[in-house]
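Hi, here's the filled form for the chain we discussed.

Project: internal
Contact: R.S.
Residues: 280
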Amino acid sequence: MAWAFVAAERDVTIRDLLTHTSGYTYGDDCPAALAPAWRRADPFAAQDLDAFVARAAKLPLAHQPGTAFHYGISTDLLGGLIERVSGQSLDAFFDERISRPLGLSDTGFWVPEEKRDRLALIHQRGPGARLALETMFNRRWPTATRGWRSGGSGLFSTAADYVRFAQMLLEGGQLGGVRILGRKSVELMTQNHLSALADPHPMGNRWEGFGLGVRITNDLGQSPTLGSLGAFGWNGMATTSVQIDPRERLVAMALYQHLPYNEGNVFGLFTNGAYAALER
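And the returned structure, exactly as it came back:
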């Protein structure tokens, strides 16, 4: 396929970033024609979030803004936007606006030394199918002197904290009398925003759409698992998943800490098991 570089027809919007329709990709998942530009810009080698945004601004887009879904650095760029709008560092904003109000005492970009022995390490299958430590990510120690605050990855947390965050979304943006998001904001967030696209399905999943930062189940007939229309959530690379189901008043979470992603269809087994257990 031949590529031609043309000017963007319009600016990238916040909605484009929230829906991953901005045209930004990841460096290991970009069209071949964009790979040289990614190697030159190397945004993840930046020393801080401002430098990351500056490097990302030099990257060509994979498509015109708002015309296609492509998972990439959009959420990282939103982290930079939060810093500019709020005047706070991303970790300070999260702590003040989300973690402290919700009582998420174990959530942050870095793990204090006194909590380091609680850190769950990522595993993979080694020789003879035995579990072995994964070699790349486990070397990235979560200390405040390494790395930078990423809007798209990097938070450490616990199952208990993550469940509270998911429960807040299930309850329409509030939990225990503390409101984090407006009810109508959550409603907008959990609608499919891809329906007008030529390919309205993220990652090729015919049963899903995508809202503002979350996948949405919108076609059970195409789904390979049990579920509910309107259920939403997201999956993480180390085989982690959260499913928030307003119809069933359900939060289902799997934190497998395993690579490669979803080996053995863990998500399918987990999702079917959770829904099959429902009696009323």
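Let me know if anything looks off before we file it.
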